[in-house]
Amino acid sequence: MMEFLARHAIGPAVSGEALVAHDGFSARYDLDRIAGKFSRPTHKLAGQAYAGKILVLDTAKGGVASAWMLREMAARGVVPLALVFNSVNPILVQGAAFAEITMLAGFDGDITAMVPDGAKVQIDPTRGVLRIL
Amino acid sequence: MKLNALERAMRAGELGRAPQIALEHQIKVAEFFGAPDFVEVTQAHVMADTESLGESGVAWLERLAREDRGRARVRVPTITDPRGTDFAKAGLLKQAGWMLELERRAIDAFVRLGVSMTDTCINYQTVQAPTRGESVAFGDTGVVIYANSVCGARSNFEGGPSALAAGLTGRTPRYGFHLDLQRRATLRIKVSFVPKTLNDWGALGGVIGRLAGNYWAVPFVEGLEESRPGSDALKHFGAAMASFGSVAMFQLAGVTPEAAARELQVAHRVGESEVKALQLQYSVDGEIDVVVFSAPQLSLYELRALAELCAGRRFVKPLLAVTSPQVKPDADRFGFTQRIEAAGGHVLAGMCFYQSYAREIAEANGWKRLATNSAKLVNILGGYGYLPVLASMERCVEAAETGKLA
Question: Class of B5-180 per CATH?
Fold first, then answer.
């Protein structure tokens, strides 16, 4: 069982399937939030559904809207289970805090290269641990 | 995290439930980033268009406004980013009634909380620019990057809930760009291209944003010392950099107050070919459906330039120019609005195009191919199903007249 330690963590413990890409994340720029898919044509996950998945991405991009949008997505039940980043900006942290969504950030090495796409993973924010099952 | 007596009282609920909710939210964010304490802020700027909030966000805002028997108020001047509509022009945009109703509810809740509805993303041009070293809690990435870089003020990207929390508590966690260490340049970029138009400045900002690539990078940019950019140029430069790269601060040698290369070696060289390459990504010859000037809202001087370009023309495609409610009355008084509208264009106020249900209004109006001089806007609208085209203000105006981008 492989474990990775994050320097920053927030939210409840979860486990689920990882959806992985070395690309950015912005709720406003990248997503069709109604359909629950990545919609920006140039995004590496374009066309892929994200609801209930643990997103493993490189970094947070884009504007401040994600701070509201994660909660709105959660209210409709079309939301990632957790967000995992190499580096994160304050907006997504604020958004995760507001929406009570699990988030990890800051690893030794590139987390998008260490977690295989489709892997079953478990996240324990109190210890800052991401575990591949 | 260290709390002073006032913060402990807030946390205990002694100042009411609303500031308590706000402080609890801020403490969660502070703990994620390891902030040692809070820093007092002089003003807050809240991004809260209802496309972002949705029904659940508006309902949350209404509950907050009802806390403390409706007596909860912001402690420091708290203003708003653009709304999701200009009520006077909602019919033109073919926005639905439910969108306007949601906007009205959000506005009512903000007003009850003592928030001033300035509805502007250029508050540093229209309301009050912060000064060097001033700690603020600004939303809208374009506002933050301008405040940090050009004004030398101190702000993180504060999303709507966090900026409102800062308004209610009068403080924000001390992390990121409130710290001296985070404000130092991390990446040195040499530019050998002199931008002439606002779309050039935006495209250059976009290129640098992509190179810098994340929130914690602070690009030091040299080679533009003689270009003498004004406020509108740096507005487009910064807004695009923040949009393409999530960058919150740049340093421009010879221009911005904290610019210092330190011992950094040049990591990237950016010339005309890099800027043109970005512009070519958003280049479609031929017919366009709509022309939009927005993101950021237009200053009085941009509207003046647009009014001059509109003289003697008759548009066959919709042309929308979006400004702030502070600028619009002056544009009316000086005849800019009348000259733009005489050509068939429209001047809208208090909204921003991409924050106004861009996907829905595209479908309602049959808008797909959109011409603009805003690099920020082309970056955003791809995700909303548009084919955006980046061109100068002059070429965009010509496109509105001929229906084609030459």
Answer: alpha beta
